[in-house]
Amino acid sequence: MRMQQADDFKAESEALFELLKDADTARFDEPTQFKSWTIKAVLQHLYFWNQMASLQIKDEDLLVQRMAGVMAHSGGMRGFEADHFRGLSATALLNEWIENAIDTANIFADADPKARLKWAGPDMSA
Question: d(Cα 1, Cα 8) in Å, to the nearest integer?
Fold first, then answer.
């Protein structure tokens, strides 16, 4: 049985992609109403933590290693995310993010919803 949340996540990600795919890339550096984060910063955040969510199932050891890197980074979470994606253009970031979001949805689609997975705080259900 497919996990409905994975399908919902995929649909929401695809809807956001549709909103952004034809936007002028200069707009990706403008602040949004969310804590004045830029669209690029929001995408970096979504992309990075989607990658981390996938590692909950694919490679728990790498998840723990990367989590330690985030915690130790002098620029905090946002600084780590910016460094992680440094050099990616807005277009490349958007395209890579949506591919990863679809992959993440597919990874979780068949996951056991009751499985306990590692995360930044206490383990949580899939």
Answer: 15
Say if CB 89 and CB 43 are below 8 A apart. Answer: no
Residue 18 in 3-state DSSP?
helix
pTM above 0.85, yes or no: yes
Copy the structure tokens of residue 10: 């995929």
* CA angle centred on 4, ends 34 and 61, rounded to 5°: 75
Cα 67 to Cα 24, 62, 121, 126, distances in angstroms = 33, 8, 10, 18
Q: CA separation (Å) from 61 to 6, 10, 29, 65, 125?
A: 23, 25, 34, 6, 18
Q: How far apart are CA 114 and CA 125, in angstroms?
A: 5
Per-residue pLDDT of the chain (126 residues; tens, 9 = 90+): 788 999 999 999 999 999 999 999 999 999 999 999 999 999 999 999 999 999 999 999 999 999 999 999 999 899 999 999 998 999 999 999 999 999 999 999 999 989 999 988 899 998
CB 4 within 8 A of CB 114: no
